[in-house]
């Protein structure tokens, strides 16, 4: 199987409103794939089509090589979908809640005890199994929701804005759990409207806007997009007022920009006059200690703003 998700030319209308307008993208097995777009871009609609909650109107969607139109059961058995607004049985304990879903999948009591133990360990919730859901923080409830999605041991996780409303610590912990799940061989498709949130986590990304695919491919390629003037980020142990004078003498340097609140500078080069090896050699020849030297990747927000349009869609 080449792709876990394969979407070709998919459009979707709600009455006259075109929510999706010919989107196309693929998700490779065992990848952590980000799905990013501004509000109203069509992320939830796409997720619902992939997880068979909406019927496709136009185009082709295959999940594990199954056509979503004709293989609903086979697909549902292998996916776990976590919607953006989760409603839970708040008066149950964590154990009862997960056990209930295990029973709905038809697992025996013995199997359920093992499965619930496993998913609680995976989501680091073992110590909370007897707590009532209504007493848990949002971050903890989100973890229970993720544990619930793992009960049927799905190969593909579809997570709609899983980090929304979480504090920074809960976000970082959630990302760590997702990395662990990927290490276990699962494919994770995660939507967000914040690109930078997914940058470190995801190896590939699809950006959509107003129902259209704007980018789909490796995260690295999005950030490394060729610019006419290669940019480097440098920190050397010279006094701040000497850095600019020293670097400006180097052949091919077009501009030097101090980075706000940091002692790094951003240096743009003219590629017809120098290249990265030559430039590094010239910086070494300045004779000072080099603390940091690296290619400056395009800022994520820049990439996102370049690819998406102004204004909020209704
Ligand atoms: N059931 C529906 N009936 C009518 N219009 C809908 C329906 N569901 C979604 N839409 C519209 O389709 C477009 C795409 O909505 P969707 O929820 O897929 O976007 P989204 O990218 O998930 O947005 P957000 O980040 O705000 O959750 C929006 O313009 C939305 O208003």
From TrEMBL:
InterPro entries: AAA+_ATPase, ABC_transporter-like_ATP-bd, P-loop_NTPase. It is an enzyme of class 3 (hydrolase). It holds the Pfam family ABC_tran. The gene is yxlF_1. One of its GO terms (molecular function) is ATP hydrolysis activity. Its EC number is 3.6.3.-. Belongs to the ABC transporter superfamily. Keywords: ATP-binding, Hydrolase, Nucleotide-binding, Transport. Transmembrane segments: none annotated. It comes from Thalassoglobus polymorphus. This is Putative ABC transporter ATP-binding protein YxlF. Residues 5-235 form the ABC transporter domain. The keyword Hydrolase applies.
């Amino acid at each position: 199987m080449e792709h876990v998700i394969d979407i070709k030319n998919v459009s979707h209308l709600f009455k006259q409103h075109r929510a999706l307008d010919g989107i196309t993208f693929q998700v490779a097995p065992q990848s952590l794939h980000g799905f990013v777009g501004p509000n109203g871009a069509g992320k939830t609609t796409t997720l619902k089509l992939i997880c068979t909650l909406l019927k496709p109107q136009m185009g082709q969607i295959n999940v594990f090589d199954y056509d979503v139109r004709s293989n609903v059961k086979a697909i549902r058995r292998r996916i776990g979908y976590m919607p953006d607004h989760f409603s839970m049985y708040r008066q149950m304990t964590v154990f009862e809640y997960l056990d209930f879903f295990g029973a709905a999948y038809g697992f025996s009591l013995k199997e359920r005890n093992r499965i619930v133990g496993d998913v609680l360990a995976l989501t680091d919730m073992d110590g909370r199994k007897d707590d009532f859901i209504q007493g848990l923080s949002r971050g903890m409830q989100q973890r229970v929701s993720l544990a619930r999605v793992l009960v049927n041991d799905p190969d593909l996780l579809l997570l709609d804005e899983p980090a929304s409303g979480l504090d920074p610590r809960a976000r970082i912990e959630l990302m760590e759990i997702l990395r662990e799940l990927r290490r276990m061989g699962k494919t994770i498709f995660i939507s967000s409207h914040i690109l930078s949130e997914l940058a470190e986590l995801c190896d590939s990304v699809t950006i959509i806007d107003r129902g259209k695919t704007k980018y789909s491919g490796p995260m690295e390629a999005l950030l490394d997009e060729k610019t006419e003037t290669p940019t480097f980020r440098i920190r050397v142990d010279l006094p701040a007022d000497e850095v600019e004078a020293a670097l400006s003498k180097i052949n091919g340097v077009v501009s030097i920009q101090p980075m706000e609140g940091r002692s790094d500078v951003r240096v743009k080069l003219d590629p017809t006059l120098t290249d990265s090896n030559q430039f590094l050699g010239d910086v070494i020849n300045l004779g000072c200690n080099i603390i940091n030297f690296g290619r400056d990747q395009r800022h994520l927000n820049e990439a996102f703003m370049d690819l998406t349009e102004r204004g909020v869609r209704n």
